[in-house]
Structure formats: structure tokens, C-alpha cells
Backbone:
């Protein structure tokens, strides 16, 4: 019962945040100079033709009406229609979403697989050369911009070694091997940059654990430093790491947009960039709202995961 | 042969004045030695040196020999095997000494499983039995509880169970009751006394409270600024304290004999001693 109330409360906050975001997204796209009618008809269009097209597309209505129309549509699952192509925004979004999800999902996973062990070593051996080299490598990794790292990997693995394709994408259901080959370099590019950032957080989370009394207790009953850290540190460190992961999600999405354009992946990023340059506002709004939704959903998931990781949170929820 | 022999122990952290200097003492099998002194006098550092758990930046000289093992020269892997088995430690802060994300019973069982070849089922039974023995009235519930669901006294008893489960030869207690309120303190001390007697384990008992030490220990060392300034049996110390610091401690431990209206005794210590560079 209490849990249900907690979940309901969180869903409420979620809905209100989403509503606020929709106002901001709509406001910003409305404030953009130029509109789709101008793009469609070109610069030498007559004002009459422009006005007629605007009326046809519903762009001459008051902003509030346009906003409510758009909001109502989204609530019933209709994200609107691209003014340029006439396709529904959802049908444009869906195939590209798959690309971005694969990219972001695998990159997050790979970055954790790299960062957690590396961060642990960096914490445990922080006074010796192993730890210092991990920290130094992370510093260098953080200083490398995503696009440059991507280009570097393309040069080595696609141009010189010819192991992997330099760009492009194949859907998984058409050619699973080709799909994997096309994803490897973008995923590695995004993951390495993320891992470099995460290592620092993992390191400091584990250093915190090393100073905790329970770590000393674990050592005093006979665990070696590494095993004490795995057995009693991982879960405790995860509590602070999950927070960072939740915050990093939006950074990873931004990184994904850059990586998609480096590797010409047909993901949400390229959809968004094209739509902005063509003033296809319905597509811009739909895509941005979707990204906002994804970020909010992930941070709600982070909130809920505290309940799983930290037993103290669970009892606090019971009491409130 | 003594169980624990500490010879000329000196511990430095970085370039600071040694935290422990010229410390030598022995503990025989089953013997209980109290170490008394104020905060920063080197009691805990001495204990951690015996456990081999000093921070990485500690520079140690002298020797610590435990049941024939030269602790100061032992590789970490071998030392880990002795910890929790031959020598165990009860820490001061029951509130933070247990992993907050793991049920208490599992943490106690872990110590058993780490050193003894027992099945999980019988380990669980042994844990619950021992939790009962250290005076927990509902051991099965305590075993299933997370640390934050228990009181300080309950946690410290669980930690005591953790320290006793492998029948160690030496139990190091670092102010085990300081964080507890007075009635719980007396109960936990009584349980510790009982358990030590039952198992015949030796004990290195650290405290700043002479009254508490006198309940548990046979002999006492008095430490001040990293050095041992006085040693003797509890009776000797009470009847004829030599060092001014010890005299102060004895007076403070005999507060019940002070007449109303009389000034309370103070302990001459760190503040009155010549200031060392630090």
C-alpha cells in the first residue's frame, strides 16, 4: 500500500515535469526564427502564398491553440505530422529510436564494464603506479572530444586495418553480423568517453568505502582488500554511482547525437539535426519530447533502484 | 611462550611524530591486558599494528609476533588468513562497523564460512546459536535484520558474535562499549567477560576508562603520546599509581569516593605535557 502510494507520488511528479518540459520545448521551437512554410516555398515566395500555406498547416492559429492541439495529440499517442514529408512523427521516430537505443544501451553497458573494475583498481592501488596510471588514462580520455575520438578509431580500424566499416548502418533483422560490425566503432567511441568520466566517480566512491568502518571490519574478519571491496563495497558504492549514472544519461544522449553524425548512423540525432535545419517543428518537438521522456523515465528508474540497492531507503519508505 | 610478543614497536605516518614509539609488551594465552590512555595516545594504532591493518602510509619498525607468526613481515594473503580466525577485533563504533546493505546474520556467517569448512545451513544455525549466547533475545530476527534496524547494543553484540565465532586465541577490543549507554555497556562487558572465560581466549582491551578496564583485565598498560608510561596489575595501579597521568586516571575512576562540594579531579595529560612538533 505504502509502496503503491510512493509510486503514485513519483508518477505524479513525472507527469508534472513532463508537462513543464512540453511548455519549454514548444516555447523554444516557436521562438526559432523562420518557419516551415518559408522552407517549403523558398525565399522568393510571395507573402500571400506563405500566408495561405501557413493557414493550411494551421500555423496561423494562436500559440496556445497550437500548443493544446499538440499536447492533446501526444496524450492520445499522436505526435503530429511532419509538415515537410507528410509522414507521422511517430513513424519517423520509431526506426531511428532503435538505432539510438542500441547505441546508448551498449555504450552505457560497455562503459560500466570498463569503468567499474578500472575505478576499483584506481581506488585500491591509488598510492602505487597501477592506480596512478588508471587515473592518468581517465584524464586523457576525458580530454578527448567525442568526435575526434571517433575519427581516430575510424582511421585505425576502418581505414588502416580495414576490420570494420567506417560508417553506415544495417538493421539487425536484415543482417545481424553487418549490424554488429556497424555498431562496434560508434559504441566503443561513446563508451570510452563515458568510461573516462565514470572511472573518476567509481574511484572516489570506492575510496569512500575504503575509509568506512565496515570495510575495516570486513578486513578484520579475514577478507583481502580486493575481496572486501567486492563483497562489501560494490553495493555501497553502487548507491552513489547510480545517482551519477542517472545524471550521465543526458550526457550520453548528447554524445550519441555527435557519434551518430560522425558515423552517419540514422538515429534520433540525425533526425533532430535535419528537422531543426529544415524548421520541421513538429518533428523537432516530437523528438525532443521523446528525449525528455527518456531522460525522466531513466531518472525515475534511478529513484526506484535506490529502493532495491539500499535497505535503509526501503525502511524509510515504510515509515513515511 | 607468550601468545603475543610486541617488541620496540614504532609506527609513523608520513613525517609526523611517531604515533607509537618504543612499545613492548606480551600477552600470554588466555591473559587479558588492558591498554589505557586518552585519544591520540596510540592505543588504536597499536591494536591495528597487531591486526596488520595499519594504513598503507604507515611506517612500522620493531616486531609483532602472534602465535609464532611475525605479523610485521607477513604477506597480506597470509595475514588475511589469520584475521578473523586466530585474532579478531571488536571496534568502537557499532553504528558504522557493519555493512549497511547486508543482513547482520549473513555478515556473522561470512566470518565463519571464510575460515571454517562448514555448510551454509549449519553456519546459519551456529550464527543464531551464538547470537543467543551473546545475549540477544530474538537471535533469528536479529540475524535477518539490517544493521539500521537494530539498536547500538544489539549491533555491538552481533559484532561480538562475529569476533568470537571462530574461537580466536586473541580478541582485540577497541573501546567496545564507549559508544553505548551505561546500562548496555555493563551488559555487553559482562557478556564479553563470560565469553572470554568460556573460550579461554586472550584479550587486548583498549579503553580510556580505567573503571571499565578493571572489570575485564588482569594487567594494564598506560599509554601517553605513543609511549607506555606505566604498567602493572590493576590492583597495583589503583593502590600505587606512579605516573602523574595514571594518578589522575585513578582519581577519575574513583569519583564515587568524592565528597559533595569537593572539586572534581582532573587528569594531567596531553595539554600539560610539553608540546611535540606535529
Residues:
Amino acid at each position: 500500500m505504502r509502496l503503491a502510494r510512493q509510486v503514485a507520488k513519483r508518477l505524479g511528479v513525472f507527469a508534472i515535469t513532463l508537462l513543464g518540459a512540453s511548455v519549454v520545448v514548444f516555447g523554444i521551437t516557436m521562438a526559432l526564427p523562420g518557419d516551415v512554410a518559408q522552407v517549403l516555398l523558398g525565399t522568393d515566395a510571395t507573402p500571400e502564398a506563405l500566408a495561405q500555406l501557413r493557414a493550411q498547416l494551421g500555423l496561423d492559429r494562436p500559440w496556445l491553440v497550437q500548443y493544446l492541439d499538440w499536447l492533446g495529440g501526444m496524450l492520445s499517442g499522436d505526435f503530429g505530422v511532419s509538415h515537410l514529408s507528410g509522414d507521422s512523427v511517430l513513424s519517423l521516430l520509431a526506426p531511428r529510436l532503435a538505432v539510438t537505443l542500441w547505441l546508448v544501451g551498449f555504450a552505457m553497458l560497455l562503459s560500466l564494464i570498463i569503468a567499474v573494475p578500472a575505478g576499483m583498481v584506481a581506488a585500491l592501488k591509488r598510492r602505487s603506479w597501477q592506480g596512478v596510471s588508471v587515473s592518468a588514462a581517465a584524464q586523457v580520455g576525458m580530454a578527448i572530444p567525442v568526435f575526434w575520438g571517433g575519427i581516430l578509431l575510424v582511421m585505425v580500424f576502418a581505414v588502416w586495418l580495414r576490420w570494420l566499416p567506417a560508417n553506415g548502418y544495417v538493421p539487425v533483422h536484415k543482417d545481424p553480423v553487418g549490424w554488429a560490425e556497424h555498431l562496434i566503432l560508434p559504441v566503443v567511441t561513446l563508451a570510452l568517453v563515458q568510461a573516462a568520466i565514470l572511472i573518476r566517480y567509481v574511484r572516489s566512491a570506492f575510496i569512500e568505502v575504503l575509509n568506512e568502518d565496515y570495510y575495516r571490519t570486513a578486513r578484520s574478519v579475514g577478507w583481502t582488500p580486493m575481496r572486501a571491496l567486492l563483497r562489501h563495497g560494490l553495493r555501497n558504492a553502487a548507491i552513489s554511482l547510480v545517482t551519477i549514472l542517472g545524471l550521465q544519461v543526458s550526457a550520453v544522449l548528447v554524445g550519441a547525437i555527435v557519434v551518430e553524425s560522425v558515423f552517419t548512423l540514422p538515429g534520433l540525432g540525425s533526425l533532430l539535426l535535419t528537422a531543426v535545419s529544415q524548421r520541421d517543428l513538429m518533428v523537432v518537438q516530437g523528438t525532443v519530447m521523446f528525449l525528455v521522456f527518456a531522460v525522466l523515465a531513466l531518472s525515475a528508474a534511478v529513484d526506484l533502484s535506490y529502493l532495491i540497492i539500499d535497505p535503509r531507503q526501503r525502511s524509510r519508505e515504510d515509515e513515511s | 611462550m607468550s601468545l603475543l610478543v610486541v617488541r620496540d614497536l614504532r609506527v609513523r605516518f608520513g613525517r609526523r611524530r611517531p604515533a607509537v614509539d618504543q612499545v613492548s609488551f606480551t600477552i600470554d594465552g588466555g591473559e587479558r591486558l588492558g591498554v589505557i590512555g586518552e585519544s591520540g595516545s596510540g592505543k588504536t594504532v597499536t591494536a591495528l599494528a597487531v591486526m596488520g591493518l595499519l594504513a598503507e602510509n604507515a611506517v612500522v619498525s620493531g616486531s609483532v609476533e602472534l602465535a609464532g607468526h611475525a605479523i610485521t613481515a607477513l604477506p597480506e594473503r597470509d595475514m588475511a588468513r589469520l584475521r578473523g580466525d586466530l585474532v579478531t577485533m571488536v571496534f568502537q563504533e557499532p553504528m558504522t562497523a557493519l555493512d549497511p546493505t547486508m543482513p547482520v546474520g549473513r555478515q556473522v556467517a561470512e566470518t565463519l564460512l571464510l575460515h571454517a569448512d562448514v555448510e551454509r545451513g549449519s553456519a546459519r544455525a551456529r550464527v543464531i546459536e551464538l547470537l543467543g549466547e551473546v545475549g540477544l533475545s530474538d537471535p533469528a530476527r536479529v540475524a535477518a535484520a539490517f544493521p539500521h534496524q537494530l539498536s547500538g547494543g544489539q549491533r555491538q553484540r552481533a559484532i561480538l558474535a562475529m569476533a568470537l565465532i571462530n574461537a580466536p586465541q586473541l580478541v582485540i577490543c577497541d573501546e567496545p562499549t564507549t559508544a553505548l549507554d551505561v546500562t548496555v555497556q555493563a551488559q555487553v562487558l559482562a557478556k564479553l567477560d563470560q565469553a572470554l572465560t568460556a573460550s579461554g581466549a586472550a584479550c587486548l582491551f583498549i579503553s580510556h576508562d580505567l573503571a571499565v578496564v578493571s572489570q575485564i583485565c588482569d594487567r594494564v598498560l598506560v599509554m601517553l603520546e605513543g609511549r607506555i608510561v606505566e604498567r602493572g596489575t590493576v590492583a597495583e595501579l589503583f593502590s600505587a599509581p606512579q605516573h602523574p597521568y595514571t594518578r589522575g586516571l585513578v582519581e577519575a575512576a574513583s569519583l564515587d569516593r568524592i565528597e559533595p562540594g569537593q572539586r572534581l579531579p582532573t587528569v594531567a595529560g596531553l595539554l600539560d605535557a610539553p608540546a611535540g612538533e606535529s
